[in-house]
Amino acid sequence: MTKILSTIYGFACGLLLTGAARAEEGGELPDPAAGWDHLWREIIIDITIIGVVFGIAAIYMMIRYRAKNPNDVGSAPKLTKAQAIAWAMIPAAIFMADDFFLSAKGWTLWNVYRRVPDNAMEIKVTGYQWYWEFDYGDGVVTNELNVPVGQPVVLRMTSPDVIHSFFIPAYRVKEDVMPGRVTYIWINPRTPGTFISTCTEYCGTAHSGMYTNVNALVREEFDSWLVEAKAEAAEEAKG
Amino acid sequence: MTAETTTADAGSSFKLMEWILTTDHKRIGILYLIGSMAAFIVAGLMALLIRIEQASPGPGIMDSPDQYNSWLYFHGAAMILAFLIPGLTGFAANYFLPLMIGARDVAFPRINAFSVWLFYGAIILALLSFVIPDAPDIMWTGYPPYSVTSPGNTAFYVFTVHLLGFSSVLGAVNFLVTVIYMRAPGIGWNKLNIFVWTTIAALGLQLVFIPVLASAVTMLLFDKYLGTHFFNPAQGGDVLLYQNLFWFYSHPAVYVIFLPAVGILFDIVATMGKNRVFNYKACVYGGIGGIMLITGEVWVHHLYVAGMPDWLRIGQMVTTLLISIPVGLIVISMWGTLYKASITYNTAMMYAASCFFLVLLGGLTGIPLALTVVTVHLSETSFVHAHFHFIMALFSAFALFGGIYYWFPKMFGRLADGPLATASFWINSIGVNVTFWPLFIIGVEGMPRRYPDYEMFPQFEPYHMVATVGAFMIALGMAMTIINWIWSAFKGPIAPENPWGSKSLEWTHAPNCPGPGNFPEDVVVDDDWSPYEYGRK
């Protein structure tokens, strides 16, 4: 058992080293979604190993230690004080090492998620029962979110009625949208396409109907749309 | 004290008033069992309706999304507050804790009777939500501002929580006093059954944290009906105040459910394996004690995407991950108890074996959710839904069902093991995996929780369909289980005294179906006695 656990620990240390090496690369704008996928794979490996080790141990012992005859009793030796302490402290140290390893990984990516790039374009998001509004400034307001590819976008979000939550699964990001506070998320659209966004905080009757499209447009397409929309908005304001 | 003990025979006359006016902890335990199983059946039917509705995108069997939302509300609130908590800390603790410590009853039997009738009051109040025109639709969490502006009747939710909370606090005081003062001579703290430890830990948590929940829902009531503005930012309130207070109770509540289930599991495994609990002190002081220590510092992991300050989210990511240490110690003790055991397999042990895998699956899927940044994607998806069903709902329910099989001869003098028990066990075990594995998968892909309709994600339909088939398997398995229990209680084969050869006091010193006063003679134990000492003659 100890041997198996130390193997896990060794594996965890190995991951820690490779993680440190990767952080050196850097350079261009980080992609939070890709970082999320990478961390997700690592965690799945981590928990699968723990799960398989404990699962096999349980199956093995449950088969191996079946009663041979009904009057048999178990023969586990009583632990000495030193053994008892070791069986508490060593596993605790291993679990703690894995906890801190995962915390460090999680914190690193968290900083990427929360540090909005300086050149981010700002769009105001408002959640209503039960639809979304996206405000690009100069009177341009839409119900679908248009974003340019290759441009970091920060969404500043609030709601006048109840709590909603703005979720774009493709960008691996969500945050609650609520009265009295402005929350934010930022995304870095890499490829053109249409993605789904949904509401993920229960908000009443049409909670599940509160979805919309996120259109990631190539830069030129987005720019020409925005110029046109601004002109239209200006005309409407005049008329 | 003179002992007046009779072995009740199955044909003895049934007097309703004796049950209504009873102060006997065992009868109160049975009342808790009946009440919590009734809540389980109704809440389980709600789950079935939810799964039928979700089997395909678009409106299915519901009249309106509001109706679906009221099913969800009832399923969550009743399963947690009226089935799991009363089933584990009401039924199991009431019936078996005094027997395990050699006590003749609890410290305050009449307060105990008051607790169980408060619980029935709460169940009636909860069931009334099916007949009132404006059923609550605020989920079991009741977040404002929605719970304040909702057309549903939030007051029913608030008063149900009040009654259950009052009942639990009285029960907590009662059982803590019982364990502290009424242990039989010779039973030191290091000789208590793990179930006794986990129960007093759970009740200790109830005592500390329930008042916080009670005040949170009371503020909700004031905001909605008396015009206060605790949670209304337009008037200087704060919407997140409620969530902080709610989860400050409701995260520990997860352990109020998890811990007694762990305790039942240890007692089943040690008894069926005829083995001592591995590293008892590490399990009790490190595992159970560690959970009590950390559980009050992790509630923010339920608010990872609620716009809390970054330092708080990161700080509580670390405390949340550190829960793996006490839980790990408990798991090592549980696994170690199998080592060199001599395991006899029966229905109770099979449920326990199933729990080993449920705790791995549910516990390990909690690790990604502990990481703030991972939860930014997974929060409020069906991944979370599957995770907490495995670790809290399924693990604890299976442990409770295992416990019912384990203690069935003690309660009814008859065995409930048999072909129906075995068949329903396998249907249940396979059913829960068929139901919740697909939800893990589509959760990672972005399927949100609490959706009656998912027309934006038509690709998830096959997964939902499989989950619905699984739900029907569980329904079949549970119907068979409950029929088996009812049949066995009256017609099952008569059980021998101590059918499992346990060393625990409820088996060695009390007859099956113990009468008033529990024990024929006052219990005194030797110095080298322990409920798990099988090597000793």
Describe it.
The complex is a heterodimer of chains A (239) and B (537). By secondary structure, chain A is of the alpha+beta class. Chain A has 2 domains: 2-67 and 78-114; 121-238, Cupredoxins -  blue copper proteins (Immunoglobulin-like, Sandwich), CATH 2.60.40.420. Chain A has 4 helices and 10 strands, in the order αααββββββββββα. Chain A has a 5-stranded mixed β-sheet. In chain A, strands 4-10-9-6-7 form a 5-stranded mixed β-sheet. In chain A, a hairpin with a 2-residue loop joins strand 2 (131-137) and strand 3 (140-142). With 537 residues, chain B is mainly alpha-helical. In chain B, helix 2 (25-54) runs antiparallel to helix 3 (65-100), helix 3 (65-100) runs parallel beside helix 6 (154-181) and helix 8 crosses helix 15 (382-412). Chain B is globular. The relative contact order of chain B is 0.12. The chains are: A alpha+beta (239), B mainly alpha (537). Chains A and B meet through helix 2, helix 3, strand 7 and strand 9 of A and helix 3, helix 8, helix 9, helix 10 and helix 11 of B.
Distance, first to last CA of chain A: 78 Å
Oligomeric form:
heterodimer
CATH superfamily of chain B: Cytochrome c oxidase-like, subunit I domain
The poorly predicted ranges of chain B are: 1-11
- Gross morphology of chain A is elongated
| 3D shape of chain B | globular
CATH topology annotation of chain B: Cytochrome C Oxidase, Chain A
Total discrete domains of chain A: 2
Judged by helices, strands and strand pairing, the structural class of chain B is: mainly alpha
CATH topology value of the largest domain in chain A: Immunoglobulin-like
Averaging pLDDT over every residue of chain B, what do you get? 94
Q: Largest sheet of chain B, if any? A: none
How many domains of chain B? 1
